[in-house]
Structure formats: C-alpha cells, structure tokens
Amino acid sequence: MTYIIKKLFQIIPVLFIISFVVFIFVNVSGDPVVLMLPEDASNEEIKAMQESLGLDKPVIVQYGLFLSNVMKGQFGQSFVYKQEALPIVLERLPATFELMIAAIIISILISIPLGVLSAIKRNTFIDLFISGTSVLGKAMPNFWLGLMLMLVFSVYLQILPVSSRGSLLHLVLPAITTGTAMAAELTRMLRSQMLDVLHQDYMRTARSKGLSHFSVVYKHGLRNSLLPVITLIALNISTLVGGALVTEVVFAWPGIGQLVISAVHARDMAVVQACIFVIAIFVIGANFLADILYRVVDPRIKYR
C-alpha cells in the first residue's frame, strides 16, 4: 500500500510538467485572439479581448492563472463549439476507450497463441512465417492498413461497415487497424520470453510430473513470460493513443483523436489543451495499473 501511495504522489509532478509544456506550446502557436475575432476587428477590440483573457499579463502570471484553472478542471471555452472544452472532450472519451480496449484485446488474442507457437516451433517454417508476419505487421502504417481493410471487407466483400460508430461490427476494422502493430511487437516479445522459460528447471520438473503439454506451456511457461509483456503493453499505451488518432480519422470514429485533429486545424487551443491532459492522465493511469498487475501475475514480487 505504501508503494501505491508513493506512486500516486509521483503523478503530481508529472502533471505539473505536462501543464507547463502544454502552456508553452499554446503560447508559441500564436495569438488565439486573432482567430476568435473577425478579420476586420480593430486594435481596441483585440486589446480588450486580450485583457479579458489575461493575455496582456506577464507570461509567469499567465501560467499561474492557467494552472489554477486546470486544477479546477477549466481549460477555457472553445470558440468553435461555443462551450467549455473539458465536457466536449469527456463526451468523446468513451468512444476512444472502446477503441483502445478492443485493440488491446485483439492484440493479446493474436500475440499469445502466435508467440507461444513460434517459440515451441523454433527454427521451423511456422516460426519463420510468424516472425516474418510480425515484422510486416509492425512496419505497416495505420492509415494504409485501415484503408486496405476497408477496401477488402467493406467495399469488395461488403461484410463490415465502412466507418462511424454503432454496433460491434463498426468496431472490428478500427480495432484491428489500431492493434496490429502492438500484436506484432507482443508476439516477438512473447516468443523471446518463452524461449528463455521453456529451458528453465521448473519446466523440466513440471514435465517429469507427467503434466500435459498444454498445462506445462500455458500454466507454467506462459504465466512466467507475462511480466515483460505487461510492461510492453503499458509502454505502448502512448503509441496506441497515437495510432488511435490516425485510425479515428480514417474510419470517422467519433473519439478524442478525431476531435484533437480538427481542433489543431482550427487552432481551438482550449480543446487541444483538454485533449492533451485527458490523454496524459490516461497514459499515466495505464502505467500505474501495470505496476499493480505485476503483483497479480507474480505474487513473489515485493514492492519496496
């Protein structure tokens, strides 16, 4: 419990750093007042708007005001949607969570059997085929894979919806597109870990007890190979978020990714700030959850 409390306190300075970085990027991106007012606005109108937003104050004072508002959950008003930015982002959050969780599940369902099979069939044609496919899966860009899947399954075969969000069928292609790269990396990692585990003494002991091959491999071998896999999933959450941004645009998925892309194009900085903070908190939370899962997978681990 002490370890968990310490980890929670470590999140606070990380959020402060993120808030500073976001503030700096917003300030160097240009004056938002120019975008909020019409092109024929007078200098007096621009100055009045700057004063109302606190943009006429020194930078350090502006950061203090920004930090104070962030702690209250206030990121400002979107000049595109004419409402507070955070509710707009939170409204899109379930769609992004749905896509990312589905992508993680698909990547696990693909990588575990392929990684184990590749390790068991080491240096055979099956191993070479799985390894080559993993390299190919990691190398394919998300937008290209999404378009190809859309072309095959939606246009030619007409068995899956093209885009948008609705039933579970709408989720299949975006989830596969987002999870393919992670599945490829997890397969290679799991193969490497299983090759180390299969030759351990406790594995030979399990075989000598007369346990079935399935029980030896999956109950004893796989469980002891999962810790690096959990670490890799946690570290790839940020990459998964980046992939989801592209996927949401390709499939018109109404999540945070599509929102942040449109906000960047419109320079709606209030929405961009809220999106970055929500994504940062999600990534930090995922890594925190991975630390807890270590103990669940391997009770021998002691937190100090």
From TrEMBL:
Main location: membrane
Keywords: Cell membrane, Membrane, Transmembrane, Transmembrane helix, Transport
Superkingdom per UniProt: Bacteria
Record InterPro entries: BPD_transp_1_N, MetI-like, MetI-like_sf
Record's bilayer topology term: Multi-pass membrane protein
Residues annotated as transmembrane: 12-30, 99-120, 141-160, 166-184, 226-251, 271-294
Subcellular location(s) of the protein: Cell membrane
Keyword Membrane: yes
Protein name: Peptide/nickel transport system permease protein
Organism the protein comes from: Evansella vedderi
